[in-house]
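Design request, tokens follow.
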């Protein structure tokens, strides 16, 4: 059974996640299950809060979007305790979606160049400068670790315009073709 993706409205998506310690047990299995859940739902990234765990763990496989964004070719990561440093303050808007917000795609302003520091699944330290859409995916996933989702970056007016769609997710009135965990307000399981 695949791990369900927790949907918008679930409180686990709004908590700041805890650092992951090397003593954490079952890490390899959890990472494998997160990749499975991500591929099942055709996402390019998944953060641990989205599978109901408030720990600083992210999986990314950006290769499926490499035809549009060559910087994503072959880029697959397990990020533990990632840290982002912004290298260029100019923000560019591009459409984003999120497995926790099915049916919603909105343009989000983000910086294009970051320095990323992280630990891999063997707790080996890495550091790399990352650009373009790959930098966007990393920022989106790291937001989840802070209890943020991409619509938090939208203007008040724009959020107002998608309010009905958001309400449909919170109340369980959307069709989703991958395993999900509804918000407590959804009155369905
Ligand atoms: Ni997301």
């Amino acid at each position: 059974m695949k791990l369900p993706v927790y949907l918008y409205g679930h409180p686990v998506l709004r908590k700041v996640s805890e650092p992951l310690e090397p003593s954490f047990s079952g890490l390899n299995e959890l990472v494998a299950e997160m990749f499975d859940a991500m591929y099942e739902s055709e996402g390019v990234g998944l953060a641990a809060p989205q599978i109901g765990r408030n720990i600083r763990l992210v999986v990314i496989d950006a290769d499926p979007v490499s035809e549009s964004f060559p910087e994503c070719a072959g880029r697959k990561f397990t990020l533990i305790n990632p840290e982002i440093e912004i290298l260029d303050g100019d923000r560019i808007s591009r459409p984003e979606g999120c497995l926790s917000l099915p049916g919603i795609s909105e343009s989000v302003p983000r910086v294009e160049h970051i320095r990323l520091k992280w630990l891999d699944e063997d707790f080996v330290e890495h550091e790399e400068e990352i650009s373009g859409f790959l930098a966007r995916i990393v920022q989106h996933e790291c937001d989840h670790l802070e209890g943020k989702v991409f619509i938090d970056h939208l203007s008040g007016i724009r959020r107002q315009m998608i309010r009905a769609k958001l309400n449909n997710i919170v109340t369980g009135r959307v069709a989703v073709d991958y395993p999900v965990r509804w918000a407590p307000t959804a009155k369905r399981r």
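Comment from the thread starter after seeing the answer: thanks! The mean pLDDT is 96.
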